[in-house]
Amino acid sequence: MTARFDLQANELGAKAARRLANVSMVISQSPLPQSLQELVSLRASQINGCGWCIDMHTKEATAAGESATRLHLVAGWREAEVFTDAERAALALAEEGTRLADASTGVSDETWDAVRSYFTDDEVAALVMLVALINAANRMGVIVRKKGGSYEAGMLAAAVG
């Protein structure tokens, strides 16, 4: 399967991508821990099947100090004992916010209450924006069949520069 379209090579696509990258940088600079941001982005990307984003967030998580064990277990976080309760709440939000069509209620009250109990208002704002943004990025990557494997940690930050 080959890539269908290079959004970065298109003037309009590149302009819009820069705006999304700027939003990503605002979230990155929030009080939400960088490692958790990467785990949340990785989990949503796994669900959506975006190879480019899985590649990016695995490498960024590693650069942020995340262990290989936790990265390998993020897809099965419910059955792993290496995540804190706060991380579990964030991963549940990522899953439910990604699979909106799978539940008539969207994000459950139970998940929302857990998120609110572990995170400050700024961290909640960052989590909500992060889940929405990674889902948008995943959809673009999957639609144009952007391939994973060539990402290097720091590439996104360098592009926004």
TrEMBL record:
Transmembrane segments annotated in the record for this chain: none
GO molecular function: peroxiredoxin activity
InterPro entries referenced in this protein's UniProt entry, alphabetically: AhpD-like (IPR029032), AhpD_core (IPR004675), CMD-like (IPR003779)
Keywords: Oxidoreductase, Peroxidase
Pfam families associated with the record: CMD (PF02627)
Domain Carboxymuconolactone decarboxylase-like positions: 18-96
SUPFAM superfamilies xrefs: AhpD-like (SSF69118)
NCBIfam families reported in the protein's UniProt record: ahpD_dom (TIGR00778)
Protein name (database record): Alkylhydroperoxidase AhpD family core domain-containing protein
